[in-house]
């Protein structure tokens, strides 16, 4: 086994996504993932707590990017515009991982427990956005409403982006989703 080759995390992620697609999440073991990646189970557990984390390991980084993006947004921005700018900043990494994002989405959609975990992670993101907006001086109720709306916008934008065969960049899809959201509250 080529245990000391670089990019072990990436190799494990690729192997897991392939196996999840072939066999289903529930019918794939950590041993099979490690073997497919040409690594050991011990190496797997150095990178991931369990086989679910292969699908969710980047979410804390994404959340931090979004929170940092809200903090860095100009003070003159409305709360929803600051959230949209932060979503674009955090989601920029998606553009280099489109195929993995599609594979990940398919695995999560096929497994109710994983879908539930995804929703839990999004709720945690809404909490983090609420705190970041509150730190900017946004009133508590407005911060919460904006955060929940921002997460909904993120979910819709992500689904559009993953499904779009024209492969637009994620930021452009967030911008389009924000325009559509704003049209809902504008004059009839």
Textual characterization of the structure:
The chain has 188 residues and is mainly α. The protein folds into two domains: 8-54, Homeodomain-like (Arc Repressor Mutant, subunit A); 58-185, Tetracycline Repressor, domain 2. Helices cover 73% and strands 0% of the residues. It has ten helices and no strands. The protein has helices at 8-23, 30-37, 41-47, 53-56, 59-72, 79-91, 98-109, 112-135, 140-163, 170-185. It starts with 7 loop residues before the first helix and ends with a helix. The model has no long low-confidence stretch (mean pLDDT 92).
Q: Indicate the proportion of strand residues.
A: under 5%
Helix-and-strand structural type: mainly alpha
Overall body shape: elongated
Q: Might you state the CATH topology name of the largest domain? A: Tetracycline Repressor, domain 2
Q: Segments where pLDDT lies below 50 for 5+ residues?
A: none
Helical percentage: over 70%
